[in-house]
Design goal:
The chain is of the alpha/beta class. Helix content is 39%, strand content 17%. The protein is built from 18 helices and 19 strands. The chain has a six-stranded mixed sheet, sandwiched between helices. Helix 4 packs across helix 5 and helix 13 runs parallel beside helix 14. It is globular.
């Protein structure tokens, strides 16, 4: 059977070739696909419009309505601009903070977005070089902008990019903002109707402003206020750091210097560089492969190896324990950070009366046991750090409520109230100070982990990651999950399944009776 594209896909593709508001080069590229009858590429490019999902969009870069390119980016930006402008009560012009990672299209997409915002009378505050995701969250809060965007695909393969949207609280957008932004984007039907201004014109008119070094320095000052370590002790520990070609490079190296970590080696071959589509390297600090170059640089005098992903919101760590490099899981890193941080707060009589610990439901219960020991309120959220960020906002709205620590098992941690997303910069500094303190006692982080196991009970965990190369593969997995949801197994191995908790629907299934009562104790987040 000869494969061919559907009529709808071909119509959408031909529409692009006939749209003179698009560049000649991109129109010719689509025409070549049509002439070559490259139906696989045409289906990938024109199967459906990009969908605004969990706080934004992540997709492959390329031509067409289904991929990220400057035209689909402009459409997303126009939808966001329309939504921001629809909100009432601004004393001045609305504003948006913008940051981007170092993928080859990221700075382009950031400036394209700024051009759309400017044309819609929205002031854009933009970093002039790649900056970490947590610094974008900080900038939104510090500059009091109406929203923020981060152009990044985090640790995903180089062919991808993404568009993460934040609201004025510095959190990734959630209900109702995310659904209404999605509707606003979907209403932008024609590229020719998108308002756009050249970047240089926006600068001239004062609608595009550079985010100053003062904002970055203020972030550094806030991070240092979280530290309990001793700069004299810090100089005695040997650390290797790899930014995995990403944005953590300069900020984290500056903080290492400010905190006295003078015995620092940075993996030169993995420093900040443009990540192109052809880039062939592991970008995920959860994957041991990402540490290969660091391990080649390491010797037995080195104590820890730290990796942050390209947008510096996730953290990975290896520990030199008795001459062998041990990779910590995301849960283990979180447990060690939590224990160290809470112990120091208690030592300084600084644990608030209504302190809160927040974790995703797939994170280790060991962390909750530690938080409970320090009399923190335990909060559990669905997967996705945006839920942790919004819950942090919610608890701080309560009388005397204080957010203390948030974590997810995939290497995301938050230990402060001035950022509302996971932050590898803070995590790396705090973990380094923990390691320096342990080294002074002739211990390693693995030793401390074993001490915690003896106190709270042994816990073990591991993760398995799968890469889905197409929307069709992803849809098949979602179908299987939906089948489990509606028709759960009654037996797993030799054990009978009694109940099944559905975190998506916040329900519990009584498997023998297939009864699904709704759980009513879910914390309701305030709408901001």
């Amino acid at each position: 059977m000869v494969k061919c594209a559907s009529k709808g896909i071909m119509e959408r593709a031909r529409k692009w070739t006939e749209d003179f508001s698009l560049d000649v080069a991109i129109r010719n590229e689509i025409k070549q696909l049509i002439d070559a009858e490259d139906y696989d590429r045409l289906e990938e490019s024109f199967s459906e419009d990009l969908k605004f999902g969990t706080a934004g969009i992540r997709a492959k870069v390329g031509p067409g309505i289904s991929l990220l390119n400057k035209y689909t980016i402009r459409k997303i930006a126009q939808g966001l601009a329309n939504y921001v402008n629809s909100k009432q009560g601004y004393a001045e012009l609305p504003s948006i903070s913008v940051s981007f990672d170092n993928r080859e299209t990221s700075d382009i997409f950031a400036r394209e977005s700024a051009g759309v915002f400017s044309a819609n009378s929205i002031v854009t505050h933009i970093f002039q070089c790649p900056m970490p995701t947590p610094l974008l969250s900080f900038a939104v809060r510090e500059l009091k902008t109406s929203a923020g965007i981060m152009i990044t695909a985090s640790h995903n393969p180089p062919i991808y990019n993404g568009y993460k949207v934040y609201w004025s609280d510095g959190c990734q957008v959630s209900n109702p903002h995310d659904n209404q932004i999605k509707e606003s984007i979907d209403e932008v039907s024609e590229f020719r109707n998108i308002k756009y201004m050249e970047y240089s014109q926006g600068v001239t008119l004062g609608l595009i402003c550079e985010i100053s070094e003062d904002v970055v320095n203020k972030y550094f000052e806030n991070v240092e206020q979280l530290c309990f370590g001793n700069c004299v002790i810090n100089k005695d520990i040997n650390i290797i750091y790899t930014p995995l070609y990403g944005t953590g490079d300069a900020p984290l190296c500056q903080l290492f210097e400010r905190r006295g970590f003078s015995s620092l080696k940075v993996v030169e071959g993995q420093r900040l560089t443009k990540i192109s589509k052809e880039f062939n390297a592991c970008l995920n600090p959860e994957d041991i492969e990402s540490f290969n170059q660091a391990l080649q640089l390491a010797n037995n005098k080195d104590s820890i190896i730290i990796a942050s992903d390209p947008d510096a919101d996730r953290l990975g760590i290896l520990v030199n324990h008795k001459g062998e490099w041990v990779k910590l899981t995301g849960n283990q890193i979180g447990v060690l950070l939590l224990d160290y941080y809470l112990a120091n707060l208690k030592r300084n009589d600084a644990i608030p009366k209504k302190g809160h610990f927040v974790s995703s439901f797939v994170s280790t219960p060991l962390a909750s046991k530690i938080a409970n020991y320090y009399n923190l309120t335990i909060n559990e959220t669905p997967v996705g750090f945006k839920h942790i960020g919004h819950l942090a906002n919610a608890v701080e709205m309560e009388e005397e409520g204080s957010f203390i620590f948030g974590m997810e098992e995939s290497g995301g941690y938050l230990l402060c109230n001035f950022v509302r997303d996971k932050d590898a910069i803070i995590g790396a500094i705090i973990f380094s100070e923990l390691s320096a303190e342990l080294k002074g006692r002739n211990l390693t982080a693995v030793d401390r982990l074993n001490e915690l196991y003896r106190i709270y009970g042994y816990h073990n965990d591991f993760t398995i990651s799968f890469l889905f190369k197409s929307n069709k593969e992803l849809a098949a997995v979602k179908d299987k999950i939906d089948t489990l949801r509606t028709n759960p197994p009654k037996v797993i191995g030799n054990s009978t399944l009694a109940i099944l908790k559905d975190f998506k629907n916040d329900s519990v299934i009584n498997v023998p009776n297939h009864c699904c009562p709704i759980v009513s104790n879910k914390r309701q987040l305030p709408v901001t």
